[in-house]
């Protein structure tokens, strides 16, 4: 990692609708397990003054994507589209509702990151193979380095999560696009901040 690297943490779709036990979603118990590492990593980022972004689905009830198997959820303006209470948020964090899967799609995220001189996006949340992955790939498409956070992301099954992560563990864009655990990233960033 370069000494002049400036990272941002982007947390995807950790919204109340995805944690509503009455919905009986397979991802809910798995998503609960990534809250502690996300809270630890966001605290580390804030300690260094690096940006933390919570990007969340904010769909319309007549959204095109609900014409398939997906049922309406995370509707814009509802409490179900708000960040889950168990995640620690600060006033300095950005809450960025998004109309589709990627945090970059039809949002001001790229501009917001450029204004803060961000060069690397560390991305976690749910679901690994949809909104997390599209955000990772869009970060690369917008000329940001991207880290897919292995222990801070999950999918509806661990098998889907692991297959997705393993697909990108070795890729032709490395090291611009890579997979890392939150502890590996912290170790690298700590090393970067201790460069004289």
What does this structure look like?
- It is built from six helices and six strands.
- It is α/β, with parallel strands linked by helices and 196 residues long.
- The protein has helices spanning 27-33, 35-47, 109-115, 128-141, 158-169, 182-193, and strands at 7-12, 52-57, 94-98, 120-126, 145-154, 177-180.
- The protein has a six-stranded parallel β-sheet with strand order 3-2-1-4-5-6, sandwiched between helices.
- The protein has a single domain (7-193), classed as 3-Layer(aba) Sandwich (Rossmann fold), CATH 3.40.50.850.
Task: Outline the fold blueprint.
Layout: E1 7-12, H1 27-33, H2 35-47, E2 52-57, E3 94-98, H3 109-115, E4 120-126, H4 128-141, E5 145-154, H5 158-169, E6 177-180, H6 182-193
Task: Summarize this structure briefly.
By secondary structure, this protein is an alpha/beta fold.
User: What is the strand arrangement across the widest sheet?
Assistant: 3-2-1-4-5-6
CATH topology (fold) name? Rossmann fold
The helix/strand series, from N terminus to C terminus, equals EHHEEHEHEHEH
CA distance, first residue to last residue: 14 Å
What is the strand tally?
Answer: 6
Computed CA radius of gyration, to the nearest angstrom:
16 Å
Coarse morphology: globular
What is the overall number of helices? 6
Mean pLDDT: 95
Helix content: 25-40%
Strand percentage lies at 15-25%
How many strands, which pairing sense, and closed or not: the largest β-sheet? 6 strands, parallel
Any low-confidence stretches, pLDDT <50, length ≥5?
A: none
Instruction: Please identify, by name, the CATH architecture.
Output: 3-Layer(aba) Sandwich
Give the structural class.
alpha/beta
Total domain count: 1
CATH class: Alpha Beta
The named CATH superfamily: Isochorismatase-like
């Amino acid at each position: 990692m370069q000494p002049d690297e400036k990272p941002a943490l982007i947390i995807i779709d950790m919204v109340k609708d995805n944690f509503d036990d009455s919905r009986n979603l397979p991802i809910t118990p798995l998503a609960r397990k990534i809250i502690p590492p996300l809270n630890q990593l966001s605290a580390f980022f804030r300690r260094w003054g690096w940006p933390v972004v919570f990007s969340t689905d904010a769909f319309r009830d007549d959204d095109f994507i609900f014409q398939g198997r997906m049922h309406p959820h995370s509707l814009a303006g509802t409490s179900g589209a708000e960040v889950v209470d168990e995640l620690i948020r600060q006033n300095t964090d950005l809450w960025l509702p998004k109309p589709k899967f990627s945090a970059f799609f039809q949002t001001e995220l790229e501009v917001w990151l450029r204004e803060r001189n961000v060069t690397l996006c560390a991305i976690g949340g749910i679901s690994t193979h949809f909104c997390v992955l599209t955000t990772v790939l869009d970060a690369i498409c917008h000329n940001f380095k991207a880290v897919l956070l292995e222990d801070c992301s999950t999918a509806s099954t661990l098998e889907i999560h692991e297959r997705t992560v393993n697909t990108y563990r070795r890729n032709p864009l490395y090291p611009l696009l890579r997979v890392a655990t939150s502890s590996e990233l912290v170790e690298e960033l700590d090393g970067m901040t201790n460069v004289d």
